[in-house]
Amino acid sequence: MAKRARAAGLKVFHVAPEGFRRPDGSWFEYPLEAPQTGDIVVRATAADAIGDVERLLNKGTDNG
Among 5, 6, 16, 55, which is disulfide-ready with 10 (CB 3.0 to 4.6 Å)? Predict the structure, then answer.
């Protein structure tokens, strides 16, 4: 999907905390899959990041 979006000239946003907390409290890290130069990376859960994503989408518009 990201490849097709880039080909269409669209911005690609990656929203992922790049890990999660295990039940024992330890952190399990995982890398993002294939972010490219120019992609926007928001290292948070979708629930926590929605306000940041909205601001990034509005950046450079009359709304932001």
Answer: 5
Average pLDDT over residues 4-25: 91
| SS3 call for 4 | helix
C-alpha torsion sign, points 14, 38, 1, 34: negative
- Of 23, 61, 29, 55, nearest to 42 by C-alpha is 55
Share of the chain above pLDDT 90, in %: 27
Note the pTM of the prediction, 2 decimals: 0.62
Region of residue 61 (phi > 0: left; psi between -120 and 50: alpha; otherwise: beta): beta
Collapse the DSSP code of 10 into the 3-class scheme (helix H, G, I; strand E, B; otherwise coil) and give the result: coil
